[in-house]
Amino acid sequence: MSGNDSGAAPAAQRGRALGDARKLEILARAEPAGLKKAAEALLVSLGDVEVLASRTGLALLPREDTVTGTLFHLGEVMVAEAHVRLASGTEGYGAIVGRDLERAMAMAVIDAAIADDRAPAAIFAFLAGEDDRQAAEDAARLTRVEATRVEMEAF
Amino acid sequence: MAYAATRGGEEAIEQAERLYREDLAPLTAERVAEVRRTMPYLVDRVMGEASLYEPDLAALALVQTGGDLYEAVLLLRAYRTTQPRLWIAEAVRHADILTVRRISAAFKDIPGGQILGPTLDYSHRLLKVGVLDGEPDTVAPVTPSETPAPATQPALADWQREKGLIEDARAEAVPLEEIPDVTRDGLLFPAPRAHRLQTLARGDTGGMLALGYANMRGYGPTHPTVNDLRLGEAEVRLRHPRGTVFSAGRVRVSEAEMVSKASEGGKLQLGFCATFGWNEVKTIAGATLDLSMHFENDYPAASEEFVLYHTEPTEASGFCIHFKMPHYVTFQSSLDALRDANAKREAHPATAPETPETPDAPAPAPELEEMPS
Lengths: 155, 373
What we know:
The structure holds two protein chains of two kinds.
Chain A: H1 3-17, H2 20-29, H3 32-46, E1 49-64, E2 71-86, E3 91-97, H4 101-115, H5 121-146, E4 149-150
Antiparallel strand pairs in A: 1-2, 2-3
Chain B: H1 10-22, H2 29-38, H3 40-50, E1 52-53, H4 55-64, H5 69-80, E2 85-88, E3 98-103, E4 114-115, H6 156-162, H7 182-185, H8 193-201, H9 205-217, E5 224-239, E6 245-260, E7 270-276, H10 280-294, H11 304-310, H12 313-322, H13 328-347
Antiparallel strand pairs in B: 3-5, 5-6, 6-7
Helix pairs in contact in B: 2-4, 3-4, 3-5, 4-5, 9-10
């Protein structure tokens, strides 16, 4: 076992333990180049992948009015969607805000591999690493936001 | 209304478009990326008015039109119609929004505190002319706090509801697929609140500001103050085919609640507006309009029909510029009528209609609020 493998094992365990929704969210927000690279590495072992959908479309985004609780449509968000099926019949799905069809396809391929129980440890380590990166990104941003907190005084 | 065909204009039209585009730099992906990176508030404004969230497309629309906002909104609205509507995302609720700015001008000690976030509110606004002389303008990086701000903030309205300051009435729950959609239903009055808020969300910033400002100055029934102003990012949560709901990414949103200084029935009245992108002027003006439209009144700028019909950017700008199109037939008809009336007056001066009386003097303006000097 290489040094990298011994370091990746706990990360892979953490990645594997993530819930389904969290895994999908991490993939949707993953750094694009790393996501695509991870998916390309998987394709070699997955065999034939049937593409059921690869397209952009719109998601209506409802918002709740904080005054009365009325739901209304804020507008539509462009989303890239990919839907694939493996030879085993297992399907994978990706949907990412924006227009990047390659990102959505990479997400769908990884989702299919996980659903088919054929994702190697490297994929789960990637998920854990992205989880950490995204959490750190949010935390760093919020420490900068906190720096703008004010105490208002009335004179 | 009748139009005349333009004969032999094809070549002229082609040359006119070339002349227009000659004034713009070549349309390249690099320029689009630069606009997206350096002008996020402009991109936000266009996305909000277009009711389509896609920053690359909005930046492209801006570059392609040379920064003509109404043309850019028109391009995006048109592009939107080419895309299938595939999802209705889960509803965004206040507690879900990653909040980077949150202030109240009415209450200083609000739950969660006041966070200025990215703003120039208390900064000097001076043009950095030195940049034109080659002096780069750089800004020192933010000194982060030791602890992060909470990712989300409580709604001030919820606190006010708990304290009995505002009505406790809440709208009935509606399935996502039954939320009224003004882009499919059309606008009828009195409008469902969902139509009103959606129309404001996609409204013209300048038009909403003009009418909101009219209300603030006295041509409206309210004296508004910012109750809660927020900038943040909302998750777009979609449903996976196997049923899992997950976030496909975040979009920038802004929203404002405005509160009336005058109470009604012992309760404060609030107005609300939210939109795509970070656009505080629009949401403050929009929430003011929502608040004003709550009250029965005779002010056009606080009439739901007047406000919602005249703040639709594509309809308003389109109707305005359509007057450039040839109206020769209708105008010729008016000219014929004018000549006919003049001819009759000359032929029969005694029976010609008298000059119309001067219309009644306009009513005195209501007491106005002045800008502080």
